Amino acid sequence: MTFPTTTLNNGVEMPMLGLGVYAPGHNQEVQQAVEWALEAGCRLIDTAAAYYNEHEVADGIQASGLSRRELFITTKVWNTDQGYEATLRAFDKSLDKLRTDYVDLYLIHWPVRETRLDTWRALERLYADERVRAIGVSNYYQPHLDELMAQAEIVPAVNQIEFSPYCNLPEVLDYCRQKGIQPEGYAPLVRGLKRNDSRLVALAEKYGKSTYQLLVRWSLQHGVVTIPKSVKQDRIRENFDVLNFAISVEDMDLMDTFHDNTRIADDPMDYL
Description:
Aldo/ket_reductase_CS
């Protein structure tokens, strides 16, 4: 199966659908999840220093037998490692754990007020040194991006935010698109919190799909790179089996009304 891709603002091609590996308490299962995802055709793996599983991602990649060039690996600098020099050191540690000499996308995990601008300068340095193919941010809303864009030499290629019908801020997506920043959404499945929403269940039955498949498809149809997380083989396969149907315009509009600010992570506006 060939998954769709998007072209970032620097010309790098990025898969639209990937595997998130934030899995607290399941770290011993991450290697297997990566192997299953790659078997299913996935080529985007999204990890972070704070997930403490970069080495297991590397194990899964090695076991897959796929070449490094076939894959798109994202990792992120954690809050306590931010700052110019500290970020450069953190990047080296991530490379060691991932057992690679570059990453495809390196993100600032959260917009820590005191260090985020120096951290971005470090990412620009890594990009200039060709140690990363693209750089971006995570959990940035318009105020954070306004501040960054006033000083940045490089426009972020990606902004990864929490994104689901229940945490749907179209103004953030619109802003990113105006600036040429590709939106990427994490927690599209809302950690299962909404699987019994009667409106979602009714739509899933209409399309003959699971509620999780409907959530992934909704995100993709908004043009957002989507990284559902699972460590279960059947769920991983199901999450990636979303390319053979489309949600109608009317039903997309209906799902857009589900927003109730349900979050599984912090609100970025608390980082002003």
